[in-house]
Amino acid sequence: MAANIAVVYDACVLYPAPLRDLLVQLATTRIFRAKWTELIHDEWTRNLLIKRPDLNANRLARLRVLMNENVPDSLVTDFEQLIPTLELPDPEDRHVLAAAIATNAKIIVTFNLKDFPDVILARHGIVAQHPDVFVGNLIERYPQQVLQSVDTILSRLKNPPQTFDNHLETLANQGLISCVAMLRDLHNNI
Q1: What are 96-120's pLDDT values in tens digits?
Q2: What is the CATH number of domain 6-130?
Q3: Residue 4: pLDDT above 90?
Q4: How confident is the prediction for the chain on average, in pLDDT?
Q5: Is 148 exposed, middle or buried (0-12, 13-18, 19+ CB in 10 A)?
Q6: Against a cut of 0.90, is the pTM above it?
Q7: Which of 18, 119, 135, 190 has its CA 20 to 30 A from that of 60?
Q8: How far apart are CA 121 and CA 108, in angstroms?
Q9: Model confidence at 141, in pLDDT bands (50, 70, 90)?
Q10: CA 144 to CA 25: how far, in whole Å?
Q11: How far apart are CA 171 and CA 177, in angstroms?
């Protein structure tokens, strides 16, 4: 994966805070160009507030702004005209594919692989990847940058603070099984 490759994050991978933190921190390394839209932001924040009404909507709105500011050129615009021209198993996901097409992304990072069939994505030169595969590929190509990203996240986690192993366990619980094993091996071999 080259630094010029664009990657669209689906809302489902931005929904869980530990995974969102990792994916956004990785995006700040500029080893790829992370992309999302306001519609993607709307989806993950809306679903998070439904599941967690104790969270503050204004703080989530501020988080969205910070994400957009800290990952340069991440916000995709002018893609909406593509939405009605696309077909996917779940029509509600067409906006994600439209954003990927509009920004010439090569990867959509999502848990919902069945909603982004290879045969449809291949027409546009795009693949859907589970976040475990995506982060694992980054570890293989950029091990030090990924490890530094995890360390940066750990330095921010103060309430409560987490150890490296605690954080890896949290990421494993998010579905990042393979890349957690890779990170653990990498960390142990330093």
Answers
A1: 999 999 999 999 999 999 999 999 9
A2: 3.40.50.1010
A3: no
A4: 94
A5: middle
A6: yes
A7: 135
A8: 9
A9: very high
A10: 13
A11: 8
